[in-house]
Amino acid sequence: MALSSLLLSLAARALTFLFFLLVIAFLGYCLYIKYIHMKYDHIPGPPRDSFFFGHSPTMLKAMKNDGIIHDRFLEWAEKYGPVYRINMLHYVSLCTYCPEATKEILMSPKYLKEKFAYKRLFNLFGQRFFGNGLITARDHEQWYKQRRIMDPAFSSLYLRGLMGTFNERAEKLMDKLAELADNKTEANMLHLVNCVTLDVISKVS
Fold first, then answer.
1. 169 with 200: CB under 8 angstroms?
2. Mean pLDDT over the full length of the chain
3. Which alpha helices (H) appear in the chain, and where do they start and end?
4. What angle (nearest 5°) sits at the alpha carbon of residue 101, between those of residues 89 and 110?
5. Would you state the pLDDT for residue 136?
6. 89 and 59 in contact (C-beta within 8 Å)?
């Protein structure tokens, strides 16, 4: 009986100690989120929906209603400028619609490439999307090597000579979309764009 009372007493103390640890950890996390907010709130951005979840509710609601989340991003860019912040938990993401800033971020080795986001670009919706290439390469040396190989194929003079082919393939795509629209048929844009891309590559390579 005495042993049972002792064990219950120890268990109660352990649970109390664990509870206080959880409370302290929770308060510490709240303070950390507040610190992150104070650190980055000088950057313009839409008001947060929640202290903890930031802008997640707005984005989840847009996706749940079959909306296009990028339309909301574009709306925020028009309202808050070409560079704005969005918050999720203790994470802060900077969105930019400035071509010069995008070029600087993608080409400069001093900006670290976030592994999670670049991994999502490799596979999208469970299918290979960009794979390992110029867009998804996180190692600058690997990126630079691929860029040097591809440079001649993307010179302005060479590309201007291919405008006829680009326009021809684009017109073919528009005809296909018009046909689908007339028949009120749903268009698989990913498949169509992939077909156009492969068609252009096969024509100009």
1. yes
2. 78
3. 2-40, 56-64, 69-80, 99-107, 115-122, 140-150, 156-160, 163-182, 189-204
4. 75
5. 66
6. no
